[in-house]
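Notes from hallway chat w/ T.B., transcribed later so I don't forget. T.B. wanted the structure written out for a chain they're using in a teaching module, and asked if we could keep both sequence and structure tokens in one place. Agreed to drop them here.
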Amino acid sequence: MNITAEICVIPMGAGVSVSRFIAACQPILDNAGLNPVAHAYGTNVEGDWDDVFAAFKQCHEAIHDLGAPRVFTTIKLGSRSDRDQSNQDKVDSLRQQAG
């Protein structure tokens, strides 16, 4: 099953700046072929359910390996069974509707 998802990973107990931890997740998501699009408060991805969650696990492991003793993550996801739809399709539809 293909899904679109948003992940927001928050390393805890490792200082105020978290960008180096978040940056460690980008190659994981890229290498998994999930078409990641980072934004100010998370990253959007798309792909097979198992591939997405395997990559999310790898992100947690990488952040712990960098020294964060705790990781708090929020995940939003959606799936469709009636047709294929990418994250870019959703953005394009919104922009078209907005004029």
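Follow-up for T.B.: The helical segments are 19-31, 49-65, 87-98. Might be a good example for the class.
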